[in-house]
């Protein structure tokens, strides 16, 4: 009997009439089916609708940006590319699996002569670790046994961040001397500058911009091409009073937020980036929130403030933590010691998974479907998943994602633990 084969065009028409669930199973029949079905799935505009329906607006852009780190996601609601939406959907679904999947752990152990770990950041497959002695150890997940590039800022580091600029992955560092330095990972060199200074650099999943803060004046930096030095660009003066201190600022596409501390309260500044051809060409101050007073216990014991998104913020205190949202402008205080048996040392959020790093070396993961779940934290924390990571305090938490595989990064003074779920 003669074998009958259909041309690709016919198969595509057949596959168009089959629902997504069955298509996912049909992909496993053969390589041919897989390639044709993947082509169709990546062309389907329905991904924007289904993704928008399951992910909170506050978490959507950061989820998309981490899933597609080399694409500038300036405004998620204006993006139509089905490939980006499908990738975001699949990434989000995999992150939900961290609550039920078993995990494995790999560990980066710091060299003793570097001192303690002072800061960390991740981008795609890259990990940059800052130390007390000014060293910056740069790794990829392909080889965590040794750094592929070791830089040195010269003084104790207070922040390192990645910057994706003109196709190059750079590391930006700020030391306790407030010097702002730039490192080219591909060529393994420091990029010469005329001398820039900053109290801090912007955080957030969008690593396409580098914005430094110095005394409440925000300055965007640029590198016109691979062979030019760094130059300052547009600035925004928040015109802070003498008793106000900008303590953190984050970028989520064009949406940007700065948190200012003032005598036991915070003030939120919301500003927008003006983007042209992928470059940040200007700032526009959009709104300044009214002063937001901290509860007495929290206000008296503030240790650090973490901007989980541009609209959700946490403060870690001595024996309590607090949260606020730009939508409510009210600080809530939580005593989680009664549940955990020890203090919270760090927090993170990704794909609606709220993460806590504890003094006893464990982390706890909790799914939140809306901000009320954060407000109800003392009640809902009993539903969290505990993972024992170390015996030393988890001083910092962040995430990694390569090929849509979630990884939680838990940091102690001397170790960086990569917790994998796939």
TrEMBL record:
Protein name per its UniProtKB record: F-box domain-containing protein
SUPFAM superfamilies named among the record's database cross-references: F-box domain, WD40 repeat-like
Cross-referenced InterPro entries: F-box-like_dom_sf, F-box_dom, WD40/YVTN_repeat-like_dom_sf, WD40_repeat_dom_sf
Protein's organism: Euphydryas editha
F-box domain span: 1-50
Pfam families linked: F-box
Top-rank lineage group of the source organism: Eukaryota
